């Protein structure tokens, strides 16, 4: 197969360069392993195994600077896991969804196909000591400050300052936590 024909293949368009079949097979194997761990931690684990979820999240690519706690049924973008940073002593309650990408629809018009518009990965950072209540949704590009508490069912669309309580859809700061005397 000549070089021009190779450039028309899916492999070239996907990876931006000509790669050999063995290298492609290795890449696919790594992705399958990553998705296996993602599926394992999400669907096959039941509480009281919550102490093991942290290990599986790290295998999926999540950056963790310490230990954290994750409840059952917590979802995040497996293919963008490297954009999620979780610091020490964070609590993420059950059924929380953490989104790490969004579509750029600034140039979206009638008749366009939604999937033709690119999606952009955006980092999410959950700082030390934060606690996220059940059934919360965290949107891309958000930082939850140190010691912040997110109320149950909240939709976090913007940064939450440190040592505050935020609730609602969208989440708004309702209380600043006092300094311990």
Record the SSE blueprint:
Blueprint: H1 3-7, H2 10-15, H3 21-44, H4 50-60, E1 63-64, E2 68-70, E3 75-76, E4 84-86, E5 90-92, E6 97-98, E7 101-103, E8 119-121, E9 124-126, E10 131-132, E11 137-138, E12 143-144, E13 149-150, E14 155-156, E15 164-167, E16 172-176
Parallel strand pairs: 1-4, 2-5, 3-6, 4-9, 5-10, 6-11, 9-12, 10-13, 11-14, 13-15
Antiparallel strand pairs: 7-8, 15-16
Helix pairs in contact: 3-4
Structure description:
This protein has a six-stranded mixed beta sheet with strand order 2-5-10-13-15-16. The chain is α/β, with parallel strands linked by helices and 181 residues long. The chain is built from four helices and 16 strands. The chain starts with a helix and ends in a 5-residue tail after the last strand.
| Overall mean pLDDT | 81
Total strand segments? 16
Strand proportion, as a percent range, falls in 15-25%
Estimated radius of gyration:
20 Å
Instruction: Kindly report how far apart the N and C termini lie.
Output: 74 Å
Could you list the spans in which at least 5 consecutive residues all have pLDDT below 50?
none
**Strand line-up of the largest beta sheet:** 2-5-10-13-15-16
Largest sheet: 6 strands, mixed
**Percent in helix:** 25-40%
Oligomer: single chain
The helix/strand order is HHHHEEEEEEEEEEEEEEEE
Shape from CA axes?
Answer: globular
- The helix count comes to 4
| Structural class by helix and strand composition | alpha/beta
Summary keywords:
alpha/beta, 4-stranded parallel β-sheet, 16 strands
Could you provide a short overview of the structure?
The chain has 181 residues and is an alpha/beta fold. Helices cover 25% and strands 24% of the residues. The protein has helices spanning 3-7, 10-15, 21-44, 50-60, and strands spanning 63-64, 68-70, 75-76, 84-86, 90-92, 97-98, 101-103, 119-121, 124-126, 131-132, 137-138, 143-144, 149-150, 155-156, 164-167, 172-176.
